[in-house]
Amino acid sequence: MSKEGIVERILSDAEDRAQAIVAAAEKQAEGIIAEAEDSAKRDEKGVKAEAEEKCAAIKSGKEAEARLDSAKVLLAQKRRVIDSIYERALSELKELKKADAVAFADKILQQFAEDGDIIAFAPDFKYAQEVSRLDICAEKKLKIALNAEGVNGGFVLRGKVADKDVSYSALLLADREQYEVEIAAEVFLDK
Questions:
Q1: pTM for this one?
Q2: pLDDT on residue 105
Q3: Virtual torsion, Cα 79, 83, 89, 93, nearest 10 deg
Q4: CA dist 109 to 48, 93, 130, 156, 163, Å?
Q5: Distance from C-alpha of 104 to C-alpha of 98, rounded to nearest angstrom
Q6: Does residue 36 carry a pLDDT above 80?
Q7: Is 30 helix (H, G, I), strand (E, B) or coil?
């Protein structure tokens, strides 16, 4: 064989090897690409599923927040209704007829007054003179103070040891603390 034949053969063998290497590299590249595409599809499905889970969690959170806000609004409305009930009760107590107001004052004095207490009447209490003539006032030597500031309906009892707030507003507050739940159940009971 001649020199040229040997060179040609070497070149031909090198070209065949190069083609085989290129073919093997292309086949390997196709496999890598296919594997990468499969991985990307799995990742895409995972990302979509994760995004859907996050969307569902956000939606659920927003729904819970909306329910909570709605419950707060409803509670505030219920409180306003209860407030208006007690405001109306206070107004009606302040507007009691003389006989009823004096009888109510007598009951309060019988229950809470102590010897020598001062009956401090609210500025808007209309029947202080009539109450001062009750037998209990003479029996317990109760003194009278008119136009006591800060008394909201009725009167307070100022004693030597302690004062007793038996004003209409204080009595209604005590009533509210005791019966508010029952009143709310009755007023807002779904019928």
A1: 0.62
A2: 95
A3: 150
A4: 76, 16, 13, 10, 13
A5: 10
A6: no
A7: helix
What is the average per-residue pLDDT within 131-156?
92
Beta bridge mates, 158: 118, 163
Contact 109, 134 (CB under 8 A): yes
**What distance in Å separates the CA atoms of residue 174 and residue 73, rounded to the nearest whole number?**
26
104 backbone φψ class: left, alpha, beta (φ>0; ψ -120 to 50)? alpha
What's the pLDDT score for residue 142? 94
Residue 141 tokens read as: 């030597």
Residues 6+ positions from 4 with CB-CB distance below 8 Å: none
- 190 or 140, greater pLDDT: 140
**What CA–CA distance (Å, rounded) separates 14 from 36?**
32
Average pLDDT for residues 140-151, to the nearest whole number?
Answer: 90
d(CA 113, CA 136): 9
Q: How many CB atoms lie within 10 A of CB 93?
A: 18
